[in-house]
Each structure stands twice: as C-alpha cells, then as structure tokens.
TrEMBL record, chains A, B:
Catalysed reaction, written as an equation: 7-phospho-2-dehydro-3-deoxy-D-arabino-heptonate = 3-dehydroquinate + phosphate
EC number: 4.2.3.4
Name of the molecule in the record: 3-dehydroquinate synthase
Function: Catalyzes the conversion of 3-deoxy-D-arabino-heptulosonate 7-phosphate (DAHP) to dehydroquinate (DHQ).
Family note: Belongs to the sugar phosphate cyclases superfamily. Dehydroquinate synthase family.
The gene coding this protein: aroB
Amino acid sequence: MGRMITVNVELGERAYPIHIGADLIGQTALFAPHIAGNSVTIVTNTTVDPLYGDTLRAALAPLGKQVSTVVLPDGEAYKNLETLNLIFDALLGSRADRKTTLIALGGGVIGDMTGFAAACYMRGVPFIQVPTTLLSQVDSSVGGKTGINHPLGKNMIGAFYQPQAVIADIGALRTLPARELAAGIAEVIKTGAIADAGFFRWIEANVEALNGCEPTALAEAVKRSCEIKASVVAQDEREGGLRAILNFGHTFGHAIEAGLGYGEWLHGEAVGCGMVMAADLSVRLGYLDEASRKRLVDVIVAAHLPTRAPALGESRYIELMQVDKKAEAGAIKFILLKRFGETLITQAPDAEVHATLAAAV
Amino acid sequence: MGRMITVNVELGERAYPIHIGADLIGQTALFAPHIAGNSVTIVTNTTVDPLYGDTLRAALAPLGKQVSTVVLPDGEAYKNLETLNLIFDALLGSRADRKTTLIALGGGVIGDMTGFAAACYMRGVPFIQVPTTLLSQVDSSVGGKTGINHPLGKNMIGAFYQPQAVIADIGALRTLPARELAAGIAEVIKTGAIADAGFFRWIEANVEALNGCEPTALAEAVKRSCEIKASVVAQDEREGGLRAILNFGHTFGHAIEAGLGYGEWLHGEAVGCGMVMAADLSVRLGYLDEASRKRLVDVIVAAHLPTRAPALGESRYIELMQVDKKAEAGAIKFILLKRFGETLITQAPDAEVHATLAAAV
C-alpha cells in the first residue's frame, strides 16, 4: 500500500482512528481490529456497491465473519425514516445481534443513516465508516453526528454516536463525479475559513489541484480537515458551544436544501452558497472586511460551486432557518466570520438578514 | 400534598430523582426545577389525556411556558416507527427547539416512545416521565431504556437516555383497569424474585392489598421496586452484564408478545407467564428447587396473571427468542433463578427448552 496517515479523534473511551490513504478499502488489516462479533452488515447504495462492494467483501473474507449487504437507493432524498427502516428490516432479517458490526460504505447520506441505525439497533451496535466521497471524508464521517432528515428540517432526528474507525480511501475519489468533488471542496474551504488562516491560504493555492483530483493535494486536504474537525469535536463532542462553528454556511445552506427539496442541490453546494451568504451578512454587520469576503467568494467560484441562492422567497428562507437546530424560541443564530480562523455566533437584525437574502438571489 | 418519597438514581451527571406519592401530577413545584427552556410538549394518549391532561397543563401554567400536547393512539400495537414520527411531526410543527422539554404522560408505551423521541429529536432534548400505570411506575420509567418495537422483535430500536425526573403519582392508579394493575404487579414480583427475598416475602403477604389498589401497599411496592432497579442500573447503565437480570421472564415474555402480535397480551401479563416458564426451566436444569418454583407460581396466580402460554408452536418460540437482544449468533440466553434474590444467565440445552415450552402451553 501507499503511504497511510492516521488522525486520532481524542474522545476518551470513544476515541477512534481515521486512516487516510490510497486503496485502503481492500486492506483486511485495517478492519480486523474493529470487528469483535461474528457478523458484519455492510450498508451501501446502488451507486457505490458496484464500484467498491466486492473490494470490501474480499477484504472481510479472511476474517471468517458472516457478511451481509444492504443496498439502499442513492441520494439525500432517501435520507429519511422509511429508508432507515430498510436497514432495521435487513438487520433483523439476518438476525444481527448486539455484536454485529455495521460498515457504512458510501458518502455522507450512507454514513449518517448507518451511524444512526447503529446507534438505535438494540440501543447501540458498533460501526465503521468507509467514506467514499470527499465530503464524507473531510466532514460527515468525523465527529459522530448521525441522523436523518424530516420534511420540515435537515438532520432533525439523530444521535451523537462515534464509529470504531474511519477508513478514508483517497483512491475511491477517482470515480467521484465532478459535482460531488466540488461539494466536498466546499467543506474543505469552510474548515480553513473558520479555523486556520494558513490552511485557507493553502486551499487558495491548491484549489486547481483539488479540482483535478490530484492525490497528494486530496490527501493533504482530507488530513488537515480531519485534524481540525477532530480537535473541535474533542473539545465539544455534543455541541454545547464551540462545535457550532462547524456550521458556518449551514444555516443558509440547510434552508436551501430543505426549501428546494432534499437532493436537488448537493449538501456541499448549498454550503458553498451558504458561506457566500454568511460572509455577506458578516460584512453588513461590520464583522468582516470586504477583501476577505471577496477572497472567500473567489475560492468558492474557483471550486465550481454555486454562489447565487435559489429564489425561495425571503419569508420562506426565514421560516426554514427558524427550525435550524441552533435556533432558540424562533430566534435564528448565525455563524459569522470575523477573519479567516475566527468566527462568532450571534443573532442578526432582520433588516441585514433581508438585505443578505435579497443580494444573494 | 400527602407524604412524598424520593428515590435517587445515581448516574453521575445523568442522575435524576423519582418522586413517589399521591396526587403529584398537579404540583407545579415538582416540574419547575426540570424545565429550562421556553416550551414544553406533553406526549400522551387518547385514554390518559382526558383523565390527567388538564391537571398537568394546570400545573405547568404558572411556569409561563408555551405548552403543546400530542395525543397518540393507545396501546402497544402503536409503539412503532409510524407513531414515533407523529411526535417528530408535532415537535417540528410547533417549532420545538433544543431546549424544549418533552413530558411523557402515560404508561410504558408512552414513556418508551417519548424517551426515544427525546433522545433523537435534534440529537437530544430533555424529558420528564410522568408514569400513570403501575408497570411504568415500577419498571419502564426507571433506567433510561427507551425505544420502539419492530414487527420482528420487541424494543429492537431505541436508545439509553435518562429523564430529568420521574414523577410517579400513585393517585393515578385509581383509574387503572384491573388487568393493567395485574400487569404492573408482575414486574413487582419479578423485582422481588431476582433481587430481594425479603421483598418477595412482602409481596406474598401483600398481594391482595396490591390487587385492591391499597395506596400504602402500592407506594411501598413502587418505592422498593424503584430502589432495586435504580441500584442495578447505577451499577450497569448500558446493560454490559448485571442489568440483564431485570429481564427475568422477558425472554419467553417477549416471544409471547411478538408471536401474538403486540397488544394482544399486556407486557406484564407476558412477563408473568414468562416467569412461570423461566422458573420451570430453572427447575429442569437443577438450579431452582420445586418449592420455590411453586411459591413463585402461586403469587403470580394470586395476582391474577396468566400462567399458561399461548400455543404458538415450539419452533416459533425458538425463532422469536433467537432475535432477543441478549442472544448472540442465534444462541438464546436465559435469565434463570437459583433462589429468591439470586439469578444466573446461561444458555440451555434444546431438550430442556422444548420440555419447558411443551409444559407451558
């Protein structure tokens, strides 16, 4: 195998490793330490199973476990209670027990649903994340947020539940459609913007290499993003405070996703546009300078992400943002940028929010 | 108010009090310390809301919170994903936020579903248990097990999630149908049998007082049962070992419930019959003496609980018990009795299990 990097998420008895490298899905030795019981259920989707299902099953074969596979329909539109129940049906149908390990093979939707199923099945069974998209490698597979959408709000139903390990195979990104690659770069940009001005500059310098799926650049982006997110999560596992900064661009972004119907825009696309809106609001409220806003917008454009928001109507945006999990008693909380590496969380006057919405469409 | 007893469940930062006494539902002061946010959602059912809904809403009124009520259909048959989703619909419809407190007003089904909804809504909101049946007062509202049924198995989907407080109003038992009272006494008998020979003798001596809904006897039964369960749970919150003893009678009992269809027998009725079967198996395997078995059966009969199992067929019983959460790789684990106050957890030879099933019908 090529060079593998490991980032550890320090969460005491729930600590776990993130292994990052090329062609890791086929490596038996990476899975062996994390599978204690006699059976494994792989949860994947109709797109990913034909690409990597056999590689994973071949890697598991030498372990002598009973392996079954659940293949779900692909897409954010299926991240709901009905699809979740398909996982439970399969687990009970194959007599999965409390020691059965679930393996999430796919992107963020598969990871979020499989993690939530693992949290709930028999009140908790172990699971391993094998993220196959850039977005899930840099973001959704790190930190233990699991869940499903509700027609009235994204990720409204879920659990904090940590995996045994994350195995992020950079090689899997070779088959990723360009639109999904861009969606992943959005979360990389977010991570740099909120937490590390040096990493943000690195992204500005390397965005073309990332667009071109250059392995060294991708590995570095995944490693730095995971390190930053792991550090934030280790300080605030259950989002009592600090962790909310990871939601930069997500308040507007979730509204776009829910307003258009899940799956219309990719999550990362909505976050890209949401960051443009959050930066606009940050400037209007006097927290961020115009030059920094422009740098952020420029790199979002360079990553081929959308910067114009869909015309849902201002009142619909407000309504959707009021059900955001950060809102309290209907008061929306925004994650705003002061400078690269420094954020604040605050309510905002209606006039400025409306101005941002009007400017964004 | 009359005399109130408080049992504390010692779980570190998740510790909580169980208040036991007559006419507690109407007491504002019991709720006030446990409601931090601006809104409360009461989850109850069509039977309990007309009886105690107004009393609870009147108790909450002086706190100045926004109070909404979700009224679910009544019965174990509704303890499923579809009904759970009605709670989420209501929470999102009323814009419940991360600080909204859920109050479970009802029996075990309402408590289990409300607790699970609280565990999952926005990945966790606070909740208070107000159990209105004897079964939920002595058992299901203590210990943080929450969840729903799956057609293939009882309580298969859920979470360990502790309430802020339990308010067990003995007065509410006055309206309890005799069949439900008996079902609650089954869990009282179970608690004495597995953990405390002295309490078991007390139950033998007081079973008629309990059948007659005598308040002093009920308060004592609730207090002793909660103390014992709280002690077990404090030692093993997530059922790594010891806690499984609380499942005495439940391996057979869950099979009866799932096999007949949820709601046909009450949970406590199935546990009553399941204890008869577990005691029979305990004698067959040489762990328990016949005289103790007879004492257990006698008190179950005295509590007007069923002792003959429904004729599901032996292979169906085995199949249903193999999906029990304690089973591993299809091997069923039984909680057996050695003497009152002492249990063991073990697999059993097929011949003896079949003999018990044959004898039970």
